[in-house]
Each structure stands twice: as C-alpha cells, then as structure tokens.
Design goal:
alpha/beta, Aspartate Aminotransferase, domain 1, seven-stranded mixed sheet, four-stranded antiparallel sheet
C-alpha cells in the first residue's frame, strides 16, 4: 500500500520565498527550478529523500540565528534556554526511537559523526578494519583522500566473489591478523542486512571497538524494517537525511559509559557551535519517525526496492547479491553492454536520476538505485515495475526516443507530487 507522508500535509505558498524572490531573484530562480527538477524527474539516488514541510519549516526558522556552543544547560553563550529545550527534545526522541542510552544530535553531517566517533575511541596511527572502498566502504572508512585514510591505518575487508555478501571468515581472519583498535561495519551500497551480532563477536575476540556506520539503513531501523546495531555496537554513527527523511545532518548513539567521550569528541574537539535550526528539524523528524505511518513507509521502501530489483533482473540487468533487503539496489548493466557512467548519463537524460557505484571485482562501475524518495512520494510496486521498464529502455534510447521516455517519466512522477499543493 503506498504511503504518503511528506506530501500529506498541504503547504501554503511560502511568504518567505515570495520575499526572497523580490530581494534576490537569481537565487529564488534556482530554488524554483530545483523544486521543479525534483518534482518532474525520478529521484532514485539512494541517499536522497523528500523531507516533510514541518522539517523544512524548522530549518528555515529563526533558530538559525542562535549561537549555542556546548550542550543544554552548559552553553558558552547566553540566551540558550529555548534552544536547549529543542536539543533536549531531539536527544530524548532519538534515544527513545532507537532504544539508545545516549544520543548526540550535534554532528553537522554523517562524516562529522564518523570523525567524532574515531576521535572518541582512537589515536592517530591506530589500525581500523572496515569495508574496503572498492566493495562499498565510505570515504570516511579509509580513503587516502579523506582524513580517515591519512590519520589511521585502515585495513579493508571485502565481499564474497560469488554471493556478493560480506565475507565474515575474511573479517575474522583479518581481525586476528591485524588486531584493529576498531572494526567499522556499514557501507554506501551494501543492499543486505548487516549481521551486527557477528561483527560484535569478532570485535570481542580481538578486543576491538565496534563502530556501526548505519547512515543508509537508519530510517529502516527507525521504522522496524531493518535490524538495529544499537544492542551490538559501541558507537552508532548515522545521518538524519537519507531513508530517515530528516534534515541533512549527523547523529551518534552510544552507551552511558562512552557518553562523555562522544560528547567531547563532537564539541569542542571537532565542531564549534551547534546548528540549532537543524537540531530542531532533527527533533521533528524523530517524532515523525516514531509514528505507525513512518513504519509503514519504511516497510514499503523495502517492498518497492525488492520489486524494482526483480524488475531490473527481468530486463536482463544483473543485480548485486541477487536482490535487496533494504532501500538500496546495486546493479551491473555491463552485461547489457553499458557501463555505469554511461548508464548514469543516459538515464538522467531520460529523467531517471541515480548514482554510479563500485562493482566488487569489476573493472567498470555499476549503478546504485534507492527507493526512499519515490516511496515518500507515494509510489508502490506497480510504479516500480514501470520504472524497471523505463530503466532498460533508457539504456539504449537515442534521439527522439530519449524525449519520449523523459515525458513518460515526467508523467509517472507527476502523479506523485512530493509536495502536493505547492
Ligand atoms: C552518507 C554516508 C556518510 C556521510 O554522510 P554525509 O552527511 O554525506 O557526510 C558516512 N558513512 C556512510 C556509510 C554513508 O552512507
């Protein structure tokens, strides 16, 4: 059953945007054109979503004006009594939503949350075991272009060549060989549930911390559609955007015993003033995520992804691991004679907006699709089957066919406006 949450609330044309259009037409034009782009092409980027009008209202509120270094009740600025209420609400709601003893809602992004987790638990030069970047590790899991690869000694585990699943034997072997200070589980394109209990077991065997970077599945976890790392990981890092559908930002969860170290690692170690408008918007998103409607959305996201993955396979496109448990699909179009980069360009021209992704053991890149945004719009399995057909047609379309497909995609998405009434 399609679930429409973000769009359920009709919003009036915003007086703030009208004022902006008079004062700065150049930027107002960008905003209007981007809103139109989001509404008339298919948003299949696995990390994106349509946050609710209530979240957008908190983001565009005067809380953006307030300086608030420190934590509620212990700020370095005067006048924080009211924003303290917002941050306490955000913290309490995050703890309740995920069943965690401690939450820090200040990280400016997912990467900032990971940086703070490392800062709390590690010293420069420490060894960390994480999914290797060619298999789906994030930049913050040891990329040489990122602080993580520069400051820590990352060792990468991979996935099984045949099944595409995490190779737990390799994780255990590497953990015993390199004795890491921390093990990181979490990925930008792994489409299956992560077996946190198994990672915990290996971490305990070698005396390592377990850090779960659950940026992608956190919204599914909130809605009860994916297993939670909270009972197993020492620290859970996440984003509040992506499937969770809140504002862009980060979140950290941990047990009481690490609470103080985590808080100090965020402020003052890696960040300055907290962004109170974003924190208020996180509180709004956590409240939304605790509703039965959100749980229904999270389950529909997975049902849609399964349907889309099956549709892609029917069209002859290889799907990594043979399917998905989550919102995320890794697809290898090379069997259809198109590499991921070419596919991304052709699909975008036909109104299907998605990313490329690494293909384990492949020389070319694949494509990554996600169903969070289209599910928020209210699409269901029937629309996923249609998207799979458009996907396959777009890989080969030329000339006028591209325009025809673009119009078909716009017609489909036009029936599911992300913000009805705007
Ligand atoms: C998205 C993501 C991040 C980073 O989030 P940003 O907000 O873009 O910094 C970190 N780790 C993983 C696994 C992610 O998927």
């Amino acid at each position: 059953m399609p679930v429409r949450t973000a769009g359920a609330q009709r919003t009036e044309a915003s007086p703030q945007l009208d004022a902006l259009a008079r004062q700065d037409p150049e930027i107002a034009d960008v905003i209007a054109a981007e809103a139109a782009r989001q509404a008339d092409s298919l948003q299949l980027i696995a990390a994106e979503n349509f946050t609710s009008p209530a979240v957008l209202a908190a983001l565009g509120s005067p809380l953006a004006n307030k300086y608030a270094e420190g934590y509620p009740g212990a700020r370095h600025h005067a006048g924080c009594e009211l924003v303290d209420v917002a941050e306490r609400l955000a913290v309490d709601r995050a703890k309740a939503l995920f069943g965690a003893e401690h939450a820090n809602v200040q990280p400016h992004s997912g990467s900032a949350a990971v940086l703070a987790a490392y800062a709390a638990l590690l010293r420069p030069g420490d060894t960390v075991l994480a999914m290797g970047l060619p298999y789906g590790g994030h930049l913050t899991h040891g990329s040489p272009a990122n602080f993580s690869g520069r400051w820590f000694d990352f060792v990468g585990y991979g996935v099984d060549r045949e099944s595409g699943l995490i190779d737990h034997d390799e994780v255990r072997r590497l953990a015993h060989e390199v004795r890491p200070k921390a093990i990181v589980c979490g990925s930008i394109c792994y489409p299956r549930h992560i077996d946190y209990a198994r990672f915990r077991e290996v971490a305990d065997e070698v005396g390592a911390y377990l850090i779960a970077d659950a940026a992608h599945p956190m919204g599914l976890i909130a809605g009860g559609a994916a297993p939670s790392p909270v009972p197993y990981a020492d620290v859970v890092c996440a984003t509040t955007h992506k499937v969770l559908r809140g504002p862009r930002g980060g979140l950290l969860l941990c047990g009481e015993e690490l609470a103080e170290r985590i808080d100090r690692a965020v402020f003052p170690f890696t960040q300055g003033g907290a962004q109170m408008h974003t924190i208020a918007a996180k509180a709004v998103a956590f409240r939304e995520a605790a509703t039965p409607e959100f749980a229904a959305y999270a389950h529909q996201v997975v049902a849609n992804a399964r349907m889309l993955a099956a549709g892609l396979e029917t069209e002859g496109c290889t799907v990594l691991t043979g399917g998905t448990d989550t919102h995320l699909i890794g697809a290898d179009p090379t069997g259809l004679g198109v590499d991921g980069r070419t596919a991304r360009g052709r699909l975008a021209a036909a109104g299907l907006v998605l990313d490329t992704c690494a293909l384990p053991y492949g020389s070319a890149r694949g494509v990554r699709l996600g169903t969070a945004a289209v599910t928020t719009q209210g699409m269901g399995e029937a629309e996923m089957a249609r998207i799979a057909v458009l996907f396959a047609a777009a890989l080969y379309a030329e000339g006028e066919e591209v325009g025809t497909l673009r119009a078909e995609a716009a017609e489909l998405v036009g029936r599911f406006p992300p913000y009805p009434g705007q």
